[in-house]
Amino acid sequence: MTFKSGFVSIIGRPNVGKSTLLNHVMGQKIAIMSDKAQTTRNKIQGIYTTENEQIVFIDTPGIHKPHNALGDYMVESAYSTLREVDTVLFMVPADEARGKGDNMIIERLKKANVPVILVVNKIDKVHPDQLLAQIDDFRTQMDFKEVVPISALEGNNTEKLLEILKSNLEEGFKYFPDDMITDHPERFLVGEMIREKVLILTREEVPHSIAVTVDSMKRDEDTGKIHIMATIYVERKSQKGIILGKGGDMIRKVGKMARRDIEVMLGDKVYLETWVKIKANWRDKKIDIQSMGYRK
Ligand code: GDP
Ligand code: K
Ligand code: MG
């Protein structure tokens, strides 16, 4: 049997469920998820391999109107996938009407020379009539190769989506080895898991203002644990106070929750040490966002 492969990117506004779909398809957490916009800041590949096929999914940052260097980087990295893939999954939520953000994306998709599948997510939140109306409305805007309603959270119809993608694959290379599930190194995933806990536990401007760097990761000969040192960067002193919490409550909670996820991922015991530092307005300067790891 011939081997088939292809690249598929997942594009859409923030919070529509792109990362949730990636993780569901992969059966494990590769991309962090939260109810905060701009949770995903980099392109993240999920490499799905079976005996006869390989699909490389690319999860992307939500497309929004950027207002700093980090925003420019995120939106550009999402759009850049349009030139790199065989199929685009354009994800929209079933429970929110089409808006300016969607229209802006549709304009870009029309110019890109790539087949687009409309994925209407969060069907668990709406009545079937509302779903049909949503599909009809989007269909007036563009020709989609397919339209697939799903719930990424509950896994409804995601098998069907996968089947459609598989049936569209063409003969091709196995780009990545069988055991490789993502393009990012463990260090990156460790930082993301720490960032995810801060996103889940804090509100307002704090989630957008933080970055996490993993400064060292090595096995401690005495305890046998993996000793990880990480820094959480914030933009202001008040934010540092929030991340630390009363008597260090918050940072302890973040560390405890992150450690559990990291241990599952690494399959090893972990000792996690986190520091909080202030770097004023780091999101505004290209050189600063690069130092936080946001580079092409
Ligand atoms: P992204 O910004 O597009 O990557 O979205 P996320 O994957 O981070 O998800 C954003 C929020 O939507 C999270 O709170 C998810 O739990 C939620 N979500 C994602 N998919 C579904 C779904 O199918 N149904 C419901 N009810 N919620 C979902
Ligand atoms: K999100
Ligand atoms: Mg995401």
TrEMBL record:
The gene is era. Residues 12-19 are annotated as: G1. GTP binds at residues 12-19, 59-63, 121-124. Residues 4-171 form the Era-type G domain. This is GTPase Era. Residues 150-152 are annotated as: G5. InterPro entries: G_ERA_dom, GTP-bd, GTPase_Era-like, KH_dom-like_a/b, KH_dom_type_2, KH_sf_prok-type, P-loop_NTPase, Small_GTP-bd. One of its GO terms (molecular function) is GTP binding. Residues 202-280 form the KH type-2 domain. The keyword Nucleotide-binding applies. GO terms for biological process: ribosomal small subunit assembly. HAMAP family: GTPase_Era. One of its GO terms (cellular component) is cytosol. It is a peripheral membrane protein. Residues 121-124 are annotated as: G4. Belongs to the TRAFAC class TrmE-Era-EngA-EngB-Septin-like GTPase superfamily. Era GTPase family.
